Amino acid sequence: MGLHRIKLLLLFTFTGVCTAQNDITLSVFTVTSKSMTVQWSGHSGASSYKITATPKNSPEQPVFAQFSGNTVMGSVNSLSPNTVYTMQLEAMDNALNVLSSAETVETTAPDVPSIDQAYSKTSDSITVEFVRVSGATSYILRAESKTGDFFLEMAVTDSPGTVVGLQPYTDYILSVMSVNSGGRSQPSYPIEARTVVIAPKLNTSSASNDSILVTWSPVEHAIFYKLIMIREGSSTRLVLNTTDTTMKFDNLESGTSYCIKGMAWDAEGRIGDDLTVCQITRPQTPDVTHVQVTPGRSLGIAVYWMMVQGATSYMGLTSNGQNCSTKDSYCYILPQECGQNHSVYVIAYNKAGPSSPSLPAAYITYPCPTENIWVEEPTAGNCSVVWENVPLVDYYVAFIKRDDGTEKSCNTTKTTCQFFCMCGYTYLTSVFPYNQAGTSLFAHVLNYTTIPCCPQDVTVKLVSTETLEVMWSPVKGAELYETTAAHTNNVLHCNDTSPVCALSDLSCNTPYSVTVTPCSELRGCNNTCTPHKHETAPCAPEILDMTQTTNSSYRVLITTPNSPSTNYTITATGRYDKYLCQSINNSCEFTKLPCGSIYEVIAVASTAVGKSLPGYSKTLETGPCCPSTVNVTQVTQAMTNVTWSPGTGARSYIAILRSPHGEAKCHTLDSHCLMGCITCGTNYSVYMDAISSTGHKSLCQYQGFSTSACCPTGVKLYRRTNNSLRVYWRSSSPQAYNHTVELYGTGANYTCFAAAGSMYCDIQEGTCGDVYRVVVAPVEKYGVKVTFCLPRTYSVPCPGSNAGMVISRRRRSVK
Question: Does the keyword Signal apply (predicted)?
Answer without folding.
Answer: yes
